Amino acid sequence: MPKRTDINSIMIIGAGPIIIGQACEFDYSGTQACKALKEEGYRVVLVNSNPATIMTDPEMADATYIEPITPETVAKIIEIERPDALLPTMGGQTGLNTSLALEEMGVLDKFNVEMIGAKRPAIEMAEDRKLFREAMTRLGLENPRATIAENMGDCLEALDDIGLPAIIRPAFTLGGTGGGVAYNREDYEHFCKTGLDASPVNQILIDESLLGWKEYEMEVVRDTADNAIIVCSIENIDPMGVHTGDSITVAPALTLTDKEYQIMRNASIAVLREIGVETGGSNVQWAVNPEDGRMVVIEMNPRVSRSSALASKATGFPIAKIAAKLAVGYTLDELENDITKATPASFEPSIDYVVTKIPRFAFEKFPGSPAVLSTAMKSVGEAMAIGRGFQESVQKALSSMETGLTGFDEVNVEGMPFEDQMVLQEGILLGKTAEIQTVIDKAMTRELAIQSPDRMRVIAQAMRFGFSDVEIYDITRFDPWFLAQIREIIETENILKVQGIPRDELGIRNLKMMGFSDARLAFLTGNTETTIRNNRQSLGVVAVFKRIDTCAAEFEAQTPYMYSTYEAPAMGFSECEARPSNSKKIIILGGGPNRIGQGIEFDYCCCHACYSLTEQGYETIMINCNPETVSTDYDTSDRLYFEPLTFEHVMEIMRVEQENGTLHGVIVQFGGQTPLKLASALEQSGIPILGTSPDAIDLAEDRERFQALVTQLKLKQPNNGLAHSSEEALEVAAKIGFPLVIRPSYVLGGRAMEIVRDQTNLERYISEAVVVSGDSPVLLDSYLSGAIEIDVDALCDGTSVHVAGIMQHIEEAGVHSGDSACSLPPYSLSEDIIVELKRQTKDLALSLNVVGLMNVQFAIKDGEIYLIEVNPRASRTVPFVAKAVRSPIAAIAARIMAGEKLKDFNLIDPANIKGFAVKEAVLPFARFPGVDTLLGPEMRSTGEVMGFDSKFHRAFYKAQLGAGTVLPKSGKVFLSIKDEEKDATLLELAACLLEMDFTLTATRGTASFLAKSGIKSVVVNKVYEGRPNIVDQIKNGDIALIFNTTAGTQAVEDSRSMRASALMDGVPYFTTISASHAAAFAIKANAKGDIGVKALQE
Q: Residue 242: which of 317, 175, 293 has the closest Cα?
């Protein structure tokens, strides 16, 4: 039936900040939904707290509210906007739970708002573990044996029936939050408690163990006429026991028989019908026992899910776009397939290639948390690759990870003997004696048994040491089919090591068809990558490109969405479907998989480059390998290549695109560190780089070259030095003095950056954290304790400079800028300082000959400005500045890079904005038990939110609320402040809290300081001072808020258990004095009156 005309305006609730389990795939789905509904003429009202998203661009919706996603805040927006309908299925679990809460509060009834896409009964039946089990029983589908528990008493009763191991799954949560696999009673009680706490309805499902079973997902779409299709089947390579978001997955499912697939397909559609999801995309998860074929349904998401983005990119079928149109009354047969332009959306997708997704982890950022996977998701991003077969697809995916992998690279296994204790026999590494062989077998078995992020490569390593497929299967439960595929790759590697690179076309082509990268072939044969590439090309072995067509080549794809492959010539000819145009082209290199330090903000910049340059008449070509992003949507750029961001793959695309038309240039400055690493090699290959030159970018990164520029410009820097050896690092440190900041050169996100306060910790850092060498120097800077840190974003066209935004960090210097809250405009800087910051920024931009974006970090101490670093490229602050200032600075930068001048644009002075925008970081500490939550110079946040208000402290309050921190209105506040911060700032915040009738408790030193100024507080013991202590009070629920700052290694360690208890018990805590002060006054600002909401377009 045609679209509904009885509704005119529709509200979409976004997913909020990027967190583990709910990442930028929901920006992709939300953006698609906004575009689809606007296309149909509806007024779209969007609520999302995350400024780093494309969906919150003012053009995407008619009214955009960057506000906290709480039921109370959204209720205010509904009262103002009066939408006719609410689409709850595009914002992940956040959007779904908020929509349900609004319904329960009576807000939807009061304002006559209809929930479309999925009604409340359907959402509850899918999300409520008890109702879902009952529904599956009615269908005759088997669930795992399980018990539903709503308190610890229920949990202990269930233990006798379910037994151990058991799997704990909380209801109404995302990414397995709070759940896990319990192997013993202690585990069991822990996961039951965390699961009940994590579930908003205090309900968990305790499942029988399905560890080792095979896991599958079906992406299903249904319309109001009961047409239903399977968009994509997805198979987890990891067996049950690893969250599907953390598992390596393939599409389509590769090890199901046709009969099993048809049973699963029909049952998935039946699940949708029974649950009552009227329209849109849903995800059904299944487990199959490999021993007897028993099939059970695990769960169902009645919304666009995390894997919907993967399925959309894998097939070319835009699930979120179609789901949005189905929600307003269309049926699948009425909608056109965008890829073929010849088939309806009811035509079930079929694919003639293999897609592999590999998750990206960040355990290195969380020392103390074991790198072990379970049912609670821990990955921070993912890469996807497409190949004709599994081997090509999986090796391309490994090359896409941005971790230095070139394929099935060797893995270092703990406890293995030295190389000289082993011997190579027929391609297998064996111990020289029986004792050494026993050591190898034990070490390898131990490593295989760990569900680690590198488990697939560990399997390949075990094959190199003679483990059979049967032995590996018994330990890992990886399907024998996948093991056979990996073994074929390892056996081919063994032949290459002995025989070297083939000299004939057929030999090289066969290797490339298996997915071997040039870099991997070079390593295996002792050649250089350049030699391999030249030999391959001289033999005529080059990549061809195929189009994603949704229908296994049954209809021709009209949309240029492509992947590379190597294929045997048919009748002497390999068909390439790239068909490059004769247009003037600009290629944009994306950022690859999301990770901490390089996330959605860089994809935001890439998308704006595509949009603005397309408008200027260029043909935009996107290269990226991240399925979660808007940049890899087939309609973001004119042409899309879903490829690894390696020199080999990018150059193959350049070769094809330069066959026709004109390559105006390549943008490498928008995708973070990933494309920047390729910049010099591309330039040396004759590829034109747009914007700031790679040499200028290198100058800013190269400490010695940069120092010369700083001296020339007469700017100040903290005392610093560069060390190329361990000995030199100790010498430089002695000159600078402690405390100091030490880090490797050329890093993103503060990787391995540390504040070192004494000689012992410096020696530990040099021996453990990094390898210091001539090629990998370390940078040492004097630590400006208590300084105010500043970020400045600017645009430059080579001759003039525009300062787009000045941000004052709320946390003092020493906390990574990505983890610090910040305010735009600055909330406490003098006009003189701001003028000087602008002058220094302009001088730097012109001296570096920046063309495009630039970010500068300063620190201010005792009225002096110190330059910390300059990044002549897009930084993670760009989307926040764009939303705060209401200026599309990434789009302007792209056009400047293409040759336009700043004078041609309507530039907005950030000093003119009315109000304050406050950015707050969102940190994933709850996912990594055992990690200290103290903020430092290494970035650990996964996302951000923005609070906007006319007053700074109210904006800070809104930012806290958006980040999930609910500041208390009353109760007991605990204060433990380091000696150097016992000053007027502490007295101010304490007086502010007392004024609002909070009770103060404090450690002896802090209480004594407060008492001298007549401020009363109750003394509480530190943990080492005896019982009862602060941890006891937290666990008893006596503490409502914690302000804790520390100095020195011992003090940090002494207070660690207190911070861990606060995290576990959900007590808000602040670990810097400046953020504590802002929080106290934010509570006061909120108490003075109701906080309002405002659309971006106003």
A: 175
Q: Give me the percent of the chain exceeding a pLDDT of 90.
A: 69
Angle between helices 518-525 and 390-399 (to 10 degrees): 90
C-alpha 240/C-alpha 207 separation (Å) is 12
Q: What is the pLDDT of residues 162-214, one digit of tens each?
A: 888 888 888 877 666 788 888 999 889 888 988 888 888 888 888 888 889 99
Query: With b meaning 16 or more CB within 10 Å and e meaning fewer, what string describes 59-77?
Result: ebbbbbbbbbbbbebbbbb
CA distance 397 to 377: 20
Task: Please say whether the dihedral angle defined by the alpha carbons of residues 249, 250, 255 and 256, taken in this order, is positive or negative.
Answer: positive
Q: Return the pLDDT at 555.
A: 65
From CA 187, how far away is CA 51, in angstroms rounded? Answer: 38
Using CA atoms, how far residue 456 sits from 232, 287, 478, 1029, 1058, in Å, is 24, 20, 9, 46, 38
What the block records as the tokens of 800 is 């003039």
Cα 29 to Cα 740: distance, rounded to the nearest angstrom: 44
- Dihedral angle at the C-alpha atoms of 254, 258, 259, 262, nearest 10 degrees? 90
Tokens encoding 40: 């149909």
* Cβ atoms of residues 57 and 38 within 8 Å: no
Alpha-carbon distance of 1075 to 812, in angstroms, equals 9
- pTM attached to this predicted model: 0.94
Q: Which residues contact 142 (CB under 8 A, 6 or more apart)?
A: 136, 294, 295, 296, 297
> CB–CB of 31/54 below 8 Å?
yes
pLDDT in tens, 979-1010: 889 999 999 999 999 999 999 999 999 999 99
With CA atoms as reference, report the closest residue to 960 among 923, 997, 1002. Answer: 923
pLDDT interval class at 775 (50, 70, 90): low
pLDDT tens across 215-248, in order?
A: 999 999 999 999 999 999 999 999 999 999 999 9
Output the pLDDT for position 903: 95
413-442 burial, b if ≥16 CB within 10 A, otherwise e? Answer: beebbeeeebeeeeeebebeeeebbeebbe
Per-position DSSP letters for 431-448, written without gaps between them: ESSHHHHHHHHHHHHHHH
Whole-number Cα distances in Å, 561 to 554, 558, 636, 938: 16, 9, 11, 37
What is the average pLDDT value for the chain, to the nearest integer? Answer: 91
pLDDT band at 552 (very low <50, low <70, confident <90, very high): low
Find all residues with CB under 8 Å of 58, minimum gap 6, and list them: 64, 886, 1096, 1097
Cβ of 733: how many Cβ atoms within 10 Å?
A: 21
Contact, 717 vs 783, CB < 8 A? no
